[in-house]
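Could you please consider the sequence and fold following this short note?
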Amino acid sequence: MTWAVSDMLGSMTTAQPPGRRDRRRALRIGLAVGAAAALVAVAVVVVPLLPPPGPRPLFQLPVSCGETWRLGTYPGHDAYDVDLFPAEGEAWGRPVLASQAGTVTVAGINGSLGGRTPDNPKGPRGRGGGYWVKIDHGGRWETQYLHLLEPPLVRAGQRVARGEQLGRVGSTGNSGAPHLHYEQHRGWEKVETWFDGSASGITQDDSEYSVTLTSNNCPAGGS
């Protein structure tokens, strides 16, 4: 009988009353539901503050008027990334121009520069995009220009016109040869580049291919 009473007392002193367990469980459920409701409320407030992207600006090739350039990609380059090489002549030092009017949001170094220059074209590679520029064109459209030879000729916050020079073609950052790496973004998404109202045709990076285009980034065209 002693053992039975002892066992009974042990069970009663170690277990929690059912009412307390239910209250704690209800409290946990209530907190979880409250947190979920708060997240939904934040989403409802934030999402309407992000308007859809506006119409595509009339982007032009980011190189001098009348010049013909080869636009290419290769496996591992990422979809919609474009590398530009002049069809004729040396790439080093060619002017890099704004594709469309906008406001510079970044002008500096992406990653590290490395040591590839016109005097030492086989120098050590850097990381990332090297000297680069990013421009906000409004309507949630953006362009990026990477691997510039020298510090950009523009600064963050500066308003630029279409055709204004941003820098010169180089091979800073993770670059194997002098070229301009170029991207167009709509909202938070990278998209196929369009030039002078037409799609470039550079889309997926499942194979190596290129197209050849002539720049209409000319002063008489306006911005």
In short: The two ends are 98 Å apart (CA to CA). The longest strand covers residues 127-138. Helices lie at 2-14, 18-46.
